[in-house]
Amino acid sequence: MRLPRLAIGLAAVLVIVACRPSTTEAPQLPGAIDQPPMAASPLPAPTGLVTAGQLTVAIVPTLPVQQYLDKAGKPAGFDIDLAGAIASQLGLKVAFQQVEREDDIVPGFADKDRKYDFGLADQVDSPALDAGAKTLPYFTTGQALLVPASDTSTQSPADLCGQSIGALRNSAGELVVLRRNDVRCKDNKLQYQPYDDGAKALPDLRAGSLKAYIDEYATVVFFARVQSGLRVVPHPLGQAKEVMVFSISDSALHDAVAGALDRLKADGTYAALLKKWGLDEGAVDAPVASPVPSPS
Prior knowledge:
The protein is α/β, with parallel strands linked by helices. It has helices at residues 3-18, 78-89, 105-108, 127-132, 172-182, 201-207, 217-226, 251-266, 269-276, and strands at 54-59, 68-69, 75-76, 93-98, 118-124, 133-148, 164-168, 191-195, 212-216, 230-232, 237-247. Helix 2 (78-89) packs across helix 8 (251-266) and helix 2 packs antiparallel against helix 9.
């Protein structure tokens, strides 16, 4: 569950940025944008939506740069832009329903007065998830390294044997470090520094007391965007597919969204949104649905 540590991490980053000299002011993240214009020839919209004419999407906006709340309290990020573009392809408006936890989304489909049509909230595909919901891959995640921009030689944790590396305590990143120390770096172990808040690793990286930091791909991209002098090492490790989730009985909505996503891939919008948010390596390239014809 990411809510506690990401909420704290975002606040800590803002403090770090606020305390930096103006000559090294951090770049701003894009804010929330108005919904894209409706597609000239929209795909047929599914029936049975929570609100007629509107695609309502459940989110947990605690994972910048995928989804978060901007300074005005509006949802922003790659996931948010993608949902808006999908709605536009279906000739629908888009709205977002915040939920507390990702795990609450699928059970919510069974609520008598459910408040959303589908979920888009950093859920990784798994047999357990597939057993209870229809899923649609839309993003590739993994563990990524953050290093000082001046470090052009580091390409993987194997290049850091004997060096200091940080990760969140009890995280997937920590597991990567421990496994490397058991195998590739067993004769020259990584010097592991655990953190309870990933944002606290950023000044250590900039000061040179930490050689690298490893965390989820979107989080590392976020840190690199709000703190200058850092870069993301290409090719995240342990890649997995993040999925949108739908009621297991709602094939029509699943297929309509899949068709809209295919269109966005074909016309370049999907790639452009990934690039906008610095998530180029998050692409899911294969078509996700059979072609859906435009209405004649």
